[in-house]
Design goal:
homodimer, 344 residues, alpha+beta, 60s Ribosomal Protein L30, Chain: A, Phosphoribosyl-aminoimidazole Synthetase, Chain A, domain 2, 2 domains, four-stranded mixed beta sheet, 10 helices, 24% strand
Chain lengths: 344, 344
């Protein structure tokens, strides 16, 4: 494990960029020019729209390097970037990465980070086509821009949900949040110990969902094969409650989702129980799930069920009825959103 | 001047985004969907390639908020983003902005920042189509992604320079660097004074070039009208020396540039003289000029001269001859690049 530490200054900015990006080859036919020029050049086609999204991850806010391995961080950065493109029902094809690099970051750290980036890119069939490196006075800063394409008629906006549409969700929710809570707990408990032995047994699923989440680009293909174009779609980064409200706001509608229909994995349930956390809160407000929340017309019910791995958790209502969580005993609880506020 | 200070927490993330972006309307016909969804959607056309570039600006590294007004910072961020698109000989059409916001930043600061963004966007005919806001533990972080389009046959890469091509440059160099040095000097001199009166008279040009630089998108249109497609092009952000070397490396060629042909404004000369700085060093290594360095075949000489405001500063040579600055007394000085190294 004892890798050497190479200072970035020993390579210089241009040497560093060469080292980090030389392994990336363009794979998509739409990539005309990748890394190494002022900008990337991407082939367009008359019937396909280009979809662009940008996201940042800041040390101390979005990740803690004491328990976030750089390889996983690189992987997760790609996921975070392309998940927004996927949420438009578009196929992600290119990313750029801009880094702010503090003095504690070594060349070996960046090698690992880019190994994770490369792995995620390969899995998702995405090309790294550009970037920027800058010094950072304080923390490691990652910005990912993702580019994808879709037929214009296939793009799913947040604004297209209609009354009576079914509200659907991929995968399960709350696992990344519980993974984070576990990492925080072990980090607290083991602080100062010389040879820390964190207890992660049985929680591998939660850790993987937090540290190495995969964007649901697989669903874009599945939905296309079933001839389903979601009337609205969003990826779940701020928690289910926040995303349902975003769709309601953009689509000028209300929603009812049923608590006992929300998919929560048994590992999530188990750790939540152990840590005295309500697993529904983890699902509603935890965030970073990178699953897809989308709506389809009522007549697509059979097609959705046929796909498997998608849960129907509720339906769209009229705007004036508001957005509610319905509990098994029939109570209605108003959904509330959470956003960030600057930290001290 | 005593504006109130509104805390971001009082608006919440979504209230903040609404406030900052509600004034931006889409203006370009290629913008299908702008701010407010998971990603922006951009119209493509069969004969035009899409060009994408990303750049970061970090507090304490790329700007100092003690003397960088937020409105100018917003303006400059747009310039920095679109300058890379322009350097591909493409027309910038969209940008996204991702911000890392520390607790010292107020809503009023962000209002001013976005006023500068809006002003620059309007001038350049560019739409703000998306972004991301995140808390930042330490400094203000700005990431700009710019998107543009060009006919595939018109894209200028760094790699196309050929032996005997003329090396051309727009505008003049070194002024932003001297503007920065002036701001640093006044900030140092006036530190701790209750009612500081910085001495900026006669230096307005230098300050404007540093605080409010304009990208040379005007040149794209001018070159097109003259039927000139540069064989290679790059924007000057790290100083002339570094950019010449980038073109030489990508194009596998050498270069000779003539010291007395390098355009330096008289205001730059005057302050450099006053501060005992070699103005040629400011031009070669200062950076942040956002001017264009490009090459054209020898037979375009008349067209270039006709355009005015472009200087021919040298020519491309064979790769094995290296890249040199030729002084008026006939000495050859090897060009050296500078990049960033992480700061303590």
């Amino acid at each position: 494990m004892a890798k050497g530490r190479t200072e970035i200054a020993s390579l210089g900015e241009f040497g560093l960029i060469d080292r980090l990006t030389s392994k990336f080859k363009k794979g998509n036919s739409s990539t005309i020019c990748g890394v190494g020029d002022d900008a990337a050049v991407i082939e367009a086609s008359r019937d396909k729209a280009v979809v662009v999204s940008t996201d940042s991850m800041l040390e101390g806010i979005d990740f803690d390097l004491t328990y976030f391995p750089p390889k996983h961080l690189g992987y997760k950065a790609v996921t975070k970037g392309i998940s927004d493109v996927v949420a438009m029902n578009a196929v992600p094809e290119q990313i750029t990465i801009a880094l702010g690099i503090s003095s504690k970051i070594s060349v070996e750290f960046l090698d690992d980070f880019y190994e994770g980036v490369a792995f995620a890119c390969k899995e998702a069939g995405v090309d790294l086509v550009g970037g920027d490196t800058s010094a950072s006075l304080t923390g490691f800063v990652v910005n990912i821009t993702a580019v994808g394409r879709a037929k214009k008629c296939d793009v799913s906006y947040r604004s297209g949900a209609k009354q009576h549409d079914l509200i659907c969700i991929t995968g399960d929710l709350g696992a990344p949040y519980m993974g984070l809570r576990l990492l925080e707990r072990e980090s607290r408990v083991l602080q100062g110990l010389e040879n820390p032995q964190p207890q992660f047994e049985g929680h591998e699923y939660l850790l993987e969902r937090y540290l190495k989440p995969r964007a649901r680009y697989d669903m874009i293909e599945s939905l296309r094969k079933e001839g389903i174009v979601p009337t609205s779609m969003i990826d779940i980064t701020d928690g289910l409650a926040s995303e349902v409200l975003q769709i309601c706001k953009a689509s000028k509608c209300g929603a009812r989702i049923y608590l006992d229909h929300i998919p929560i994995a048994k590992q999530t349930m188990a750790l939540a129980d152990e840590m005295n956390i309500d697993p529904v809160i983890a699902a509603l407000n935890g965030g970073e799930d990178y699953e897809l929340l989308f709506t389809v017309p009522l007549d697509k019910r059979e097609s959705i069920i046929k796909l498997g791995c998608i849960d129907i958790i509720g339906h769209i209502t009229a705007e004036n009825t508001g957005a509610y969580l319905v509990t098994p005993d029939g109570n209605d609880i108003a959904l509330k959103a959470q956003g960030f506020t600057p930290k001290e």
